[in-house]
Amino acid sequence: MPRTCRSLAAIQPILLLILLPVLKLTLGLESRGSEFVKGKICIGTNGRMSVPSNREHHYRNLRDRYTNCTYVDGNLELTWLQDEHLDLSFLQYIREVTGHVLISHVDVKKIVLPRLQIIRGRTLFKLTIQEREFALMVMLSKMQSLELPALRDILAGSVGMFNNYNLCYVKTIRWDEIITDPAANFTYVYNFSHPERECPTCDSSCQEGCWGPGC
Question: Which domain of life, per UniProt (predicted)?
Answer without folding.
Answer: Eukaryota
